[in-house]
Design goal:
Helix content is 36%, strand content 20%. The relative contact order is 0.09.
Length: 526
Amino acid sequence: MNDIENVARLLKNDFPKYAKNILKVVTKEGQIQPFDLNPGQLAIHKQLEDQLKKTGRIRALVLKARQVGISTYVEGRFFWRITQTKNANAFVLSHLAESTNSIFNMVRHFWENVPHPAFKPPLASQSAQTLVFDGLNSRYRVGTARSTQTGRGQTNRFVHGSEVAFYPAGSDIVAGLLQTVGNVGSEVILESTANGAGGWFYEQCMKSLRGESDWIVCFVPWYWMPEYRRKPDPYFKRSPEEEELARRYKLDDAQLCFRRSKLDELGSTDLFRQEYPSTPLEAFLTSGRCFVEDGCLQKAEENCYSSDFCGEYKNSELIERESGPYREWDNPRDESYVIGVDVAEGLGHGDYSCAQVLDSMGRQVACWHGHIDPYQYADLLLTLAQRWNTAYLIVERNNHGLTTLRRLQELQYPNLFIESSVDNAYGDRLTKRGGFLTTSKTKPLIVDNLAALLRQNESGIADMELVSECRTYVIDDKGGTNAQSGCYDDRLMAYAIALHGLQSLPRPRERTVAKRFQAFDPAVGY
């Protein structure tokens, strides 16, 4: 085996080394240099390789800041694959024709600048959007996301979707594209900057972060990039906000100076967060005004932690199952609990039903979140409430909630929330009804209560997914509050209802000992 064969064998399974030795890229200054992966690209490479090793394929969503080199990484990776694999097709779909042309020029540049014939298969043909490699029967093709038929003309082993959040009819285009891909050994990498809290890319990222998907989310925060720095002047002084950011993300003054310069350029903190996000949730800005300030949600996010138990409801029992719809952050103790219940229609799609369990001090200890028939939901709630010491159940009685309430009454559950109100139709007689009715008058009260607790950093939230819903819960033009289009508020409403129920739940009081005043003169006592 000669030296070239040894090198080829070494580079065949090591993309970072292959990229550095074989591929050339054009820098922002117009210089041609070896493709040496930056920290963000290396982090994503590790995530992809780990998934490939574990599952035999790649299904990845890459949420990125501006110009961190993700497209360059994916094109280089697929070029590495295609030029060493027979009968394999790579397809790249971009949101704009201009971007499509740039990507194809990058791939052609890779091929033109390969330094040795052993790594440069000859071209059988080429066009404005396709390279076909002779002797391999493999091709590299690009296209623009104009219709749901784009990319369906061939079977693909490697698929790259660029700026997927900006595709027109994104879900239909991606669904069609995925039909062209096989399973074992295939790689699908869909990357994008964020485009608000809504749409296919946002929803898929949220599903993945919740553990409800086979896709992984790869995130590249802006501060990973070595070029996102500015030299601070001698008089540089951090603001209180910058001190907090430095503490949270371990930023230095050069990174904070870069942030200042971009804030001046963009004119908005919200725009900076969307273009240069520090966390996945920060990237997906809402199009409306959030019902509570972002800083409050940042603190709530820091207080969240992983659940101790994950399971599902089956045969009248809560049993352990990885990625199940039920989670616990604590075990039942000798105290009272309240369960706030939001009831959905029960279809296999759309709005979810949710039950939030709080202890007597207002701390989240468990949550069930999923799709279930409203009648069967009552049986689940009975099991859940019995586990949590015959918990105080406060069920939203709007729409399908009536079905759940009636079933709970049939089951003779003894600890239901009863709402008292004056009924004008019956001579101002006081009437009592089971459950909580959400109206234009009661909804602002429970939502404002949650907002107040978030501002005081006393919400008791343990679940990151609940914080995520809070970020996409907005104030509309008429002053009402609702979930952003394409988002959900089931967790939030169930939690707000539970907090309301907590107000009528007997709460333990901490015993305090009165402090004695010290006498100035022990002899006389004053």
